[in-house]
Amino acid sequence: MTDSALIAPETLNQICDALAGPGWIVLPNFLSAATVGELHQLAQQRRDQFNRAGVGREAGHQVRNDIRGDSVLWVEHDDAAMLNANARMAALQQQLNRDLYLGLIELEWHFASYPAGAFYQRHLDQHREQDTRVVTVVQYLNPSWEASDGGQLRIYLDDAQSVDITPYGGTLVVFMSNRFEHEVLPATRERVSLTGWYRRRSL
């Protein structure tokens, strides 16, 4: 990949300060245009490996078009094509543990593809009776995206307000998983991201 695996120290500090305060942050241009293009191309090359996403876990898992319409491909930690992407996220995990004492043990993340018109209803990034997801991270891989294309991430904030985040290529969104409900609005074209969660051991 084109980008260095390193994240600038000031960016790491900015993310940690935001999570310790308001609990969320949006960083435009976290990824270069070249890396966005490479990751987007990788997702397209692996399109036949994507599977329809569902809701629920284990025996309760089911595909529900009325709730979410994306397909996903999980990222392996030893994937050579994802070496720098995984290293960047590992660096962020170390900083979050160092500064915020979150006890994060791993990142689980996947490519997510929303076809035109697909959405994900309002939800919280926690499975029922589970508290292992701590921090949500989203990287958008949409070259030449326009606000009019739609596909915004709507985050519901603590003060009963909401913020809409347009999925411009290269943007990073980070927020506390158990604090903010959110939804994905429909878009007029395919919307691609890398989405995941830093996890801790169950309490």
Automatic annotation (TrEMBL):
Provide the Fe2OG dioxygenase domain boundaries: 100-200
PANTHER family, A to Z: EGL NINE HOMOLOG-RELATED, HIF PROLYL HYDROXYLASE, ISOFORM C
Cofactors, names only: L-ascorbate
Q: Which GO terms describe its molecular function?
A: ferrous iron binding; L-ascorbic acid binding; peptidyl-proline dioxygenase activity
What's the protein called, per UniProt?
Answer: 2OG-Fe(II) oxygenase
Could you tell me the Gene Ontology terms of the biological process aspect for this record? cellular response to hypoxia
Keywords of the record: Dioxygenase, Iron, Metal-binding, Oxidoreductase, Vitamin C
Pfam families in the cross-refs: 2OG-FeII_Oxy_3
Top-level taxon? Bacteria
State the signal peptide span.
Answer: none
Q: Which InterPro entries match?
A: HIF_prolyl_hydroxylases, Oxoglu/Fe-dep_dioxygenase_dom, Pro_4_hyd_alph, Pro_4_hyd_alph_FE2OG_OXY
